[in-house]
Backbone:
């Protein structure tokens, strides 16, 4: 066996030992050797390297029955960090995420909706450097920066292709932010990173195929298969809001008629409500429904019906084991969850799929996009060498 | 490095060399060593083992310019075979498939629609043994049997959960056929194996994410990601025919209202046509359309519209690089392809996805399910040891 093969093997073994400690701690050297089939010498050498590099520490565990002491290993969570950013119309959030997806720091910052890409990006860079300095983060520990935002993102090129909310078109945020900060930068659609966060650390932990649905300024979904974001050819997989429901339906902001999201998104409802009276927010429609105003009852009920239909449609195409609901509707009016579930089980979910999935609301809430972006950066840029 | 690690390494290297020869033949030992970084000694040892086991053969290639002779390697395609079966209401087909997915033998056999599972399975077993004997196939070369059929299949358990076409419910065809033949048996929905065949050997070869859509007695789809069938939690991913289009629409045979397939499937159209006059086949509706009968024009145009909508919806959720159309509609009336494509590009495909995919009709036709089933069996059961 030549040197090249041995190098490959060493790297593989190192990753294996690291993952064992990450996923099964507390665990001893002997247990790792037994489970992986590696020799005790190999395991000890690798553990030595990992602890030298600050990834792993030892502690003594006394067994309850016999009082015997064993030396166990655990990960030092902060040995690998990443910066997770949520970028939206009126604000951005900066978080520091550890190797388990825990948020060890976070802060919110205002953004002016008409702000240029240059201004936003240099504001992010400046604040981010301040935070790294103030928090005493060792830059060599930072695997990279992840950014989640609403819009169509070319994740391979690191480019925001189009974002209505930010008012951006063809902005290569990855390249620009990387030039300003020196860190590697990954960027993706907010729903995709949120789904990743819920899958790894949130309401969908333990799931093998998680579908996250967002009901808000748009309707979208994201699919995580065995820990990986499913992107499709142009990172547009999951655009469930633009499946056509009615070829003669209402016009969608995309220019097509009868898109699924025209029945659900806030702007549609406000627009429709305007036929009756001027309404400024979803809250007002909910209030009107509460006091029994027919138009509001109709609008909300139709929206909930199409949310249940969205859930059925996601089940039929992705057949996930877990569906996570997120977005303005779910976060601000959590009581609708039960109405949607009833519509699902009484009418809208295809029978063979009725007992194949769990349904949850996001558990990471306002932290989800930061955590997911941070985890994305670790996936893209963290290596053990 | 202990023995266990070396065994693992040897196995990996063997698979690597095998795949190199399979995918890049003609290729020499030196080229393999260069591309993999393995030593010349390692490559020679593995090639020796592969040729001893009948997987690989040598041939001399004379270069055009200099006339130098090089010893190249190629796969012996028939060193690994599998049996691919298509099972349907009125017939089943048995094929012998080689390691590249080529059909080296095939035959058609009648099935009575009211036939019990026991009868069908023992007929298949008997005929299959006769074929293996007559064709002089060495049973030790047969990796296993694959079966593709219409219906809901539990591919893990090898069970037909429910098939309207076969009239079967909870039939463990894999276990039964394996007991009768001695071969390992894999079973799956026909669209999933057909998609696999088109992806590996047919119209979608070279694609990374293939979506196949079937328009026939039902409407369904299948997604192949990097050569693997995407199944979902209960092997129901791709059931696009049961996404809800209209909560108040026509009743579907599944019991739900307004399923996408109600606008497309043959039985729906015959049923609707019956309001005007008794019609026995899709051909009659097409003829009536040809002679300008309004009802037929309406029915076909509506169906084509919803086929274009199906394509848009598949694009939005899976974002594939290639869509393959299959099923009765496409196979018997190929002229509709252009009408569907026009509807797609003029009206129904969401703009950001317009230039992200190719559209093809099945190229394997009546052989697709046999080939896909055979390839499935090889994926499940073929190992190099």
Residues:
């Amino acid at each position: 066996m030549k040197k090249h093969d041995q190098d490959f093997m060493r790297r593989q073994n190192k990753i294996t030992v690291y993952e064992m400690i990450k996923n099964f701690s507390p665990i001893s050297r002997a247990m790792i050797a037994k489970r992986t089939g590696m020799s005790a010498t190999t395991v000890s050498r690798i553990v030595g390297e990992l602890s030298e590099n600050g990834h792993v520490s030892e502690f003594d565990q006394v067994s309850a029955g016999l009082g015997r002491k064993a030396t166990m290993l655990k990960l030092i969570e902060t040995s690998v960090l990443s910066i997770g950013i949520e970028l939206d119309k009126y604000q951005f959030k900066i978080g520091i995420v550890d190797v388990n997806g825990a948020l060890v720091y976070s802060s919110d910052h205002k953004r002016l909706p008409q702000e240029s890409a240059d201004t936003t990006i240099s504001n992010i860079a400046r604040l981010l450097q301040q935070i790294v300095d103030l928090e005493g983060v060792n830059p060599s520990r930072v695997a990279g920066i992840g950014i989640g935002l609403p819009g169509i993102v070319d994740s391979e090129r690191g480019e925001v292709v189009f974002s209505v909310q930010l008012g951006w078109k063809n902005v290569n945020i990855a390249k620009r932010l990387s030039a300003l900060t020196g860190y590697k930068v990954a960027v993706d659609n907010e729903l995709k990173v949120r789904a990743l966060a819920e899958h790894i650390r949130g309401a969908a932990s333990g799931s093998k195929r998680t579908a996250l649905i967002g009901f808000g300024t748009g309707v979208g979904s994201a699919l995580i298969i065995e820990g990986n974001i499913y992107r499709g050819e142009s990172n547009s997989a999951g655009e469930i809001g633009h499946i056509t429901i009615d070829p003669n339906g209402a016009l969608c902001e995309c220019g097509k008629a009868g898109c699924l999201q025209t029945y659900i998104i806030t702007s549609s409802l406000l627009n429709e409500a305007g036929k009756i009276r001027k309404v400024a927010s979803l809250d007002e429609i909910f209030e009107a429904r509460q006091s029994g105003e027919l138009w509001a009852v109709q609008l909300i009920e139709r929206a909930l019906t199409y949310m249940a239909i969205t859930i059925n449609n996601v089940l039929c195409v992705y057949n996930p084991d877990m569906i996570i609901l997120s977005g303005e509707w779910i976060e601000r009016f959590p009581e609708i969850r039960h109405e949607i579930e009833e519509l699902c089980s009484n009418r809208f979910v295809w029978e063979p799929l009725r007992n194949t999935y769990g349904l949850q609301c996001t558990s990471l809430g306002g932290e989800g996009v930061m955590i997911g972006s941070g985890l994305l950066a670790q996936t893209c840029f963290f290596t053990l060498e």
